[in-house]
């Protein structure tokens, strides 16, 4: 792909080069809309709670008080069990553990008959499930909007273009509806929003189609991409439009009366929900069943086992909390009871202007703008650029008109990397503008932004006729860049191939994770087996030093190097044959450093010599005549410094490394050296002694006798203060 083009990098580490931050904050490291000091939930929230006036689309209340919850992560429908105070899957629903048959269930609703309606956006239909036996009563859709009315259609299987094999996905025609929200009216009718056509479809109590409308009336425009909605006690509909903070209010005739963005003006039209749900999906339940609940199991013999407590929240806590997936939320031991916290709201619009970006090239054709951003549902982000041959002051940049900025909306992007071409005219200087929009409940977030220059494509190798004229040259350069990037993507694996052979750069899975790991593959070339429970840094160092380790394998130096690569500290090895203290003729001297040759070295069982219980050892091999040599041969002790974070798993990995690095006939005892200095307990200065920090003396009733005891120094000697006289000012007791 060649040398990468120069780029201006803007992020929390390199700096954002911000000239204007209008309702945009960079306190968290990323560019976001500023927070508002209010706690009220936004009216146009994509969750469908309408500022707390209605239940979210993922929660529904049955006619008998059942609480249904849709786990968006797994597509599972859960029901609340008041006895165990947990959400459990609806076991009778077809599918694994209550999973809906569709690919993307997004909403729940209980109709007038008590049936559970499931909005399946993946299959673009609404399923009606009987709450009595969980039988599928019927479904709405999929439909196509043709000739002013919905027409039933069947999706076609999506085929893989190269092979023609079905991919498992479904393909819908361009005029197929896209249901996004449901609401039940007081008379039993069901309203469904169609975000693709900007319509609301009405169905009868038995799911029979009635009519459709777009809400346009007098000065109020028609609906634009309607999503979630709800109904008040009078049958008026309240519809959220994608990317707008205001909510459209539709009367019973299907006309938009007004658009409001605050909940205070319409709060009196709704019946207060029986369940409290936060904007993040947290469900709060306060009406707890009194008394304790226990589960009694039977053993294989049919006997009742001791009862097990089911409830995990203390009985004194008035509130129970569950996340959006139905998992219980617990407090800590100090504060076991949870309390509701205020939510966070954001500004609905913000602006970021960069400082002047100087390419240093006269008439520079700027290439691309690349951002790492996230645009949650209900938010919008746009990129705008302006160029000039002269450096402008901040006031002059602010005075630029809208037609002098080239705007590129970030569409169809949820999270990750987004790239767009700079369509501004050539110029040495460039200014970047990011336009943030949101509904108040969420905010776009830009983690990094890069502006690259100059634009160099394959057009410079083609005949000049293709680039004749400024507009033609700009279009052709951007057009040919599509193929340049496709070619670069195909060649990128070849250019990055050397990194796969570098132990310090090859892709590696994190500790304990499964999946592809080229570090294991690289180690397999030289017969090195790596444990996934080791950290990535340790495995990389081990593979990088493997050639040196193999040359030193079986030696003391190789063992120490192998262990040092894993632990990061220098170990010590004591070979037992070096501890022999034999008296040699004409060279020995009597003392505690000398030992006589005799059977007491091994203490084999021997009649009239070592036959008393407790003084002999049962040994089934070896020659007694060579015991003084065999007792110290082929044995060693490895001392490894270990801190407080050295766990049992690390010790097991260390023993595996020692077993792999040592000679097969040598027995090695691994000893961990903790930060201590204890005289008389196998102490070898410079080998197994470690000076610790913050050592404290032992105190009666505060310490347990053992290897970690540190005795205090002697007391201060008795001394008389100056001026004291014996017999007058002192009393001896």
TrEMBL record:
Family matches, as InterPro entries: 6-blade_b-propeller_TolB-like (IPR011042), Tail_protein_I (IPR006521), TRIM-NHL_E3_ligases (IPR050952), Unchr_phage_tail-like (IPR011748)
> Where in the sequence is the signal peptide annotated?
none
GO BP term (any one): protein polyubiquitination
GO MF, any single term: zinc ion binding
**Top-rank lineage group of the source organism:** Bacteria
Give the protein name, as stated in the record.
Phage tail protein
């Amino acid at each position: 792909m060649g040398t990468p083009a120069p780029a201006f990098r803007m992020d929390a580490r390199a700096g954002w080069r911000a000239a204007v931050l209008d309702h945009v904050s960079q306190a968290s490291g990323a560019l976001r809309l500023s927070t508002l000091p209010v706690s009220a939930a936004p009216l146009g929230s994509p969750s469908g709670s309408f500022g707390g006036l209605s239940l979210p689309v993922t929660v529904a209340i049955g006619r008998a008080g059942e609480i249904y919850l849709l786990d968006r992560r797994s597509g599972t429908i859960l029901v609340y069990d008041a006895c165990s105070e947990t959400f459990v899957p609806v076991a009778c629903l077809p599918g694994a553990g209550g999973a809906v048959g569709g690919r993307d269930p997004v909403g729940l609703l209980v109709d007038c008959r008590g049936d559970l309606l499931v909005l399946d956006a993946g299959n673009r239909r609404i399923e009606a499930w009987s709450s009595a036996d969980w039988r599928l009563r019927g479904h709405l859709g999929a439909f196509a909007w043709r000739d002013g009315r919905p027409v039933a259609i069947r999706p076609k299987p999506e085929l893989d273009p190269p092979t023609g094999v079905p991919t498992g996905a479904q393909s819908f025609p361009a005029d197929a509806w896209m249901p996004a929200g449901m609401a039940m009216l007081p008379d039993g009718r069901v309203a469904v929003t169609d975000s693709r056509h900007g319509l609301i479809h009405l169905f009868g109590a038995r799911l029979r189609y009635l009519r459709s409308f777009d809400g346009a009336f007098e000065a109020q425009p028609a609906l634009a991409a309607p999503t979630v909605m709800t109904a008040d006690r009078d049958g008026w509909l309240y519809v959220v439009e994608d990317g707008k903070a205001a909510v459209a209010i539709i009367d019973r005739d299907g006309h938009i009366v007004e658009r409001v963005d605050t909940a205070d003006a319409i709060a009196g039209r709704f019946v207060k929900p029986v369940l409290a749900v936060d904007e993040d999906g947290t469900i709060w339940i306060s009406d707890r069943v009194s008394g304790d609940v226990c589960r009694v199991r039977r053993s294989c013999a049919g006997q009742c086992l001791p009862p097990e407590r089911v409830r995990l929240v203390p009985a004194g806590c008035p509130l129970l909390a569950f996340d959006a997936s139905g998992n219980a939320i617990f407090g800590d031991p100090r504060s076991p009871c949870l309390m509701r916290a205020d939510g966070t709201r954001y500004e609905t619009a913000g602006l970021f202007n960069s400082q002047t970006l100087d390419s240093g090239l006269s008439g520079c054709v700027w290439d691309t703008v690349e951002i790492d951003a996230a645009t949650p549902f209900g938010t919008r982000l746009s990129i705008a650029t302006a160029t000039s041959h002269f450096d402008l002051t901040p006031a002059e940049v602010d005075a630029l008109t809208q037609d002098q900025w080239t705007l590129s909306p970030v569409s169809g992007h949820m999270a990750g990397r987004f790239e767009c071409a700079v369509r501004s005219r050539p110029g040495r200087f460039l200014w970047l503008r990011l336009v943030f929009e949101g509904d108040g409940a969420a905010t776009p977030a830009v983690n990094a932004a890069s502006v690259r220059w100059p634009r160099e494509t394959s057009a410079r190798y083609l005949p000049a006729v293709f680039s004749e004229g400024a507009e033609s040259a700009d279009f052709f350069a951007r057009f040919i860049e599509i193929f340049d990037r496709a070619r670069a993507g195909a060649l990128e694996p070849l250019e990055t191939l050397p990194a796969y052979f570098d132990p310090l750069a090859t892709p590696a899975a994190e500790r304990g994770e499964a999946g592809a790991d080229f570090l294991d593959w690289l180690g397999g070339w030289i017969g090195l087996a790596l444990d996934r429970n080791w950290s990535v840094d340790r495995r990389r160092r081990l593979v990088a030093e493997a050639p040196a380790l193999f040359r030193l394998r079986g030696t003391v130096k190789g063992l120490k190097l192998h262990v040092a690569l894993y632990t990061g500290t220098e170990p010590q090895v004591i070979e037992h044959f070096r501890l022999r203290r034999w008296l040699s003729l004409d060279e020995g001297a009597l003392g505690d450093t000398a030992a006589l040759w005799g059977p007491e070295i091994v203490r084999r069982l021997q009649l009239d010599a070592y036959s008393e219980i407790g003084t002999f050892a049962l040994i089934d091999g070896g020659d007694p005549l060579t015991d003084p040599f065999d007792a110290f041969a082929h044995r060693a002790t490895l001392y490894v410094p270990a801190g407080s974070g050295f766990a049992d798993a690390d010790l097991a990995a260390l023993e595996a490394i020692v077993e792999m690095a040592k000679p097969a006939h040598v027995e090695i005892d691994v000893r961990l050296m903790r930060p201590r200095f204890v005289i008389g307990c196998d102490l070898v200065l410079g080998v197994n002694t470690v000076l610790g920090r913050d050592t404290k003396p032992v105190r009666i009733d505060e310490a347990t006798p053992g290897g970690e005891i540190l005795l205090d120094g002697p007391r201060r000697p008795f001394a008389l203060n100056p001026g004291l006289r014996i017999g007058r000012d002192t009393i001896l007791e």
